[in-house]
Amino acid sequence: MKHDDDAHRYYYPVEGRTDGAIGDAVALIAIILVPAGIYAAWNTVASWISALFS
């Protein structure tokens, strides 16, 4: 049995596995943080307006 012939069938380079993982993680965090930031900003503005007219 030749080692090289059998080994290449099961070899997957590590470099190729996580090519889009960082971008996907950033997108997922952005999807969560952007609405949360908009919500927090809106509540801040609404409380300022409420305090201004009260």
Primary descriptors:
single chain, 54 residues, rod-shaped
Task: Outline the structure in words.
By secondary structure, the protein is an all-alpha fold. Helix content is 70%, strand content 0%. The protein has two helices and no strands. The protein has helices at residues 3-7, 21-53. The longest helix has 33 residues, at 21-53.
Helix and strand arrangement:
Elements: H1 3-7, H2 21-53
Estimated radius of gyration = 25 Å
Number of E-type strands: 0
What is the number of helical segments per DSSP (H or I, 4+ residues)?
2
Please report the distance between the alpha carbons of the first and last residues. Answer: 85 Å
Low-confidence stretches: none
Assembly state (oligomeric): single chain
* Content-based structural category: mainly alpha
Spatial shape: rod-shaped
User: What is the average of the pLDDT values?
Assistant: 80
Summarize the main sheet. Answer: none
Helix and strand succession?
A: HH
Tell me roughly what share of residues is in helical segments.
over 70%
Share of residues in strands = under 5%
